Fold this protein.
Amino acid sequence: MVYAFYPGCTLHSQARGFRESTERSAAALGLELRELPEWQCCGGVYPLAQDSLFPVLPAARNLAAAANLGAPFVTVCSGCYHVHKRTNRLIASDPEKRAQLNAMVEASYDGSGEVLHLLEALRNELPAGELAARVQQPLTGLRVAAYYGCLLLRPEDELQFDDPERPSILEDHLRELGAEPVEFAYRSECCGSYLSVSAPQSARRAAGNVLNSARKAGADLIVTSCPLCFYNLDEQQPALQAADYDFQPLPVVYFTQLLALALGVWESPWYAEEHRIDPGPVLARFGGVKAAGD
Amino acid sequence: MDRIGVFVCHCGLNIATNVDVAAVSEAAAAVPGVVWAEDYKYMCSDPGQRKIVAAIKEHELTGVVIAACSPNMHEATFREACGGAGLNGYRCEIANIREQCSWVHTDRAAATAKAIAQTLAMVEKVRGDQSLVPIRFPVKKRALVIGAGISGMQAALEIAEGGHEVVLVERLPHIGGHMAQLSETFPTLDCSSCILTPKMAEVGRHPLIKLLTRSEVTEVGGYVGNFTVKIRRNPAYVDWSVCTGCMECMNRCPKKVPSEFDGGLGQSKAIAVAFPQAVPYRPTINRDACIFFNTGRCKICERVCPAGAIRFDQEPEEIVEEVGAIVVATGYDLFDKSRVGEYGYGQYPDVIDGLQFERLLSASGPTSGQVRRPSDGKVPEQVVFIQCVGSRDQEKGMPYCSKICCMYTAKHARLFRHKVHDGQAYVFYMDIRAGGKGYEEFVQQGVEEDGVLYLRGRVSRVFPEGDKLMVWGEDTLSGQKVEIAADLVVLATAMVPRPDARSLAQTLKIGTDAYGFFSEAHPKLRPVESLTRGIYLTGAAQAPKDIPESVAQAGSAASKVLAMFSSDLLEQSPVVVEVLADLCRGCGLCVEACTYGARELDPVAKIARVNEVLCQGCGACSAVCPNGATVLRNTSREQVLNMVGALLEES
Amino acid sequence: MLLSVKSLRTEDMRRLAEISGEAVAKCYQCGKCSAGCPLAADADVPPHGVVRLVQLGQIEEATSCATIWLCAACRSCASRCPRGVDLPRLMESLRAMVLRQGSPVLHASQIPADVLARAPQQALVSGFRKLSV
């Protein structure tokens, strides 16, 4: 099936590992991801003030472009998913704003298109067991903390991605890969988000709570679906180590990187420079991943 | 010769502000046949009524029109007044110039013209009114009480003490309802069973109470004074008349099941009696759990029963009862905590609700009255009580307050501290609602003498960490986040109507509100009556309330039943339809049109007949009759056309 | 504090209602939002306290606290609020009232060089969207 793929800006710069692993995995599974021509940065956050439409213009334009392609809009970045899904809802439900947006971006989109996260697309295309059947390198014995963050789950009524108090889509996916998801209390607590640039101490504490919770639950590594969560969780770890003697580092990877590994389509380079905490040692036993410096 | 009197009420400023009442009175006086017209400040008051009486006598009035508020308010008042003066009350009509005029218009000139039109239309109606006598019909002096919790039992006892037979129907095999599950009651900390069992025993042995447990009402027909009720008595698979209550069957039954009475915390058997003081003290087989019913094997109970009372082939019984009044006392349920995601969806064994905690406290409970964690049986040191779980929460669909939780949580916290001297109790609350007698003092004692720590704020999340439960709350009074590693968490879940309440309401043809609580006729002045005459409401089935209120309401409902039974005949409004036999062709259209089942075709005479008692006087039949053979008393076609004429003339 | 009809019905209140579309009267100060807020520990006024300030008409105080700049819009509060109050939206509207005066809170010069180098532009774009004009 063909999808209108929206990578988002970060996937082309600081999160190339995310993008490459996504593209390779999709190809291996028969999902055709066609990158949207002429896409714009979604803005990263969904504007909450009621009285201005400008912040959702780029998302509206992207959605119209996907509709023109005639394919469902799919992305892997939590932030992009959040903004586009909510913008889509806004267009579908508010006739006045729909008219204004369409006029501004010179389109005639009605909000009826689908906005999917890759996990949803995978679940649709490969019902339970079918993904497991394609796994070349089962991640047996790998204990993974599935970190959802907040942007995928809330607000529940608009996103309808999963149950915010008890989500399972990411854990189900990890089990298909043969991994062992561990339940940890902070799996949908905020990582600090953009506070890493404005209030780094607060962001560090939030990230530290998430990492400690995952470690306490016995995780070997933590997966995420958002470059900002990735940065907050990964980048803060040396500082956390310096501040707290008992802090144990925990490697962070994108869920698509594990997917690519399990499907046997991951090759080096590993984009080691994107990871502060090297996941190489934890993943080495599954082959295909070279530790930093190799 | 018409001699009509017209009385226009100011209703203080309610009518007089927007309607020129003097002008209405003048306009009425000018109408032929109207021999007296006056206006007055408050027609319903004593002097107002005396004016009507005086005018009737002095001017020998043959009809009276009162232009005032809605008939719902004072129709009965004015009809009585006329009757007292010697004029048949049904020759008194009311023109509603308040709710239907002055309260909904602001243009004084237009409102006055409309009030005049309304009044003159009623003058035309009263010209054609006949003197009528209320319909009287016999009443069966037996009552049905549905539900044998504290409220139902109390109602049954009071009606029985009044000398009348009561059929008391209870869904469960035993009586006592939720009160039987309680350990102690606030604010006296009386042992619940100690105060309840005497009542249960009285109900069990009262000669005038016919107790039907394991029973449900399936169909109700008839009308006030003459209800026909079908009851299904579910099988116990044990012949209770032969059984001696030795409970050897229960002792020897190999199939363990979670005890419903203990909220799933304790164990029962597939054949069991719910608790040691149950009335009737007889066992019932849970068909879904029973090994014999599922596989055809076992039958140990049958073998060990010394009385030979086991009856696997027992069938449901259909019982029909004729009663004159019905009291609904079906009680409440607790909001299902598995719907609360932030507190674990019912998955964490040490997050329990109020009734479950009662069972832990109860001496006859699964832990013999010791407070122990369901997960590992350890005595908890830190117990967190969370109030308002589901209540006051419009997002969960229950914006109302459940009224009892502040009190029972205070009770729980205090009892926990009495039993676990080194323990600490925390209560997260938003407000404390302690309005009953002795209630506020009870809560304060908990704070001052038992060291219960009250934290004003709600809990965002409860999640397990190791063998503890982390509670994230807030103390808004000091503006601080609060984190507690609890051993046990007790949720004060909302009181909700029982899941079968709505279907019972349909069976009885009474109303429920948006949440499923049965609707009372008037929230202030008629709290124990439904809108269906003869059917009364009591207890938590009508709205969340505590035991004293449930008992008081039961008394109130019982007194209404006893009042109904105090005469042999009941009265009903005579403003119903009658059939003009000469004009009726027996086409049957009226039978179809009647939604109250009050009409039928006489197979011999081949004309339609009306059951005057079922007829509600809606007029649907008279509208569809092609021959004009059905007439609504005091609302004939001629009268209606004359009224229309008067309205059109004035506008 | 002196309360009066004038102090409760100010232009600022009207403006805030217009930007946010939120009826703050709904909030009954239960504190469930503050209880679950991951950033509340660093806040000077707890989240429910910010709502209280608005309820009292004290917009000046509400826009001066650190809390509104610490909100990451994670929606833990809004998803559990029993009254359906959209607190992130209120926070953003309070920020908007300050930012639209023309003074951004986040300056590029404030951000250390190594953060600028490694942070994903998602962080920078989001940050500037929320914290500057």
Summary: Chain C has a mean pLDDT of 92. Residues 106-133 of chain C form one domain. DSSP finds ten helices and no strands in chain C.
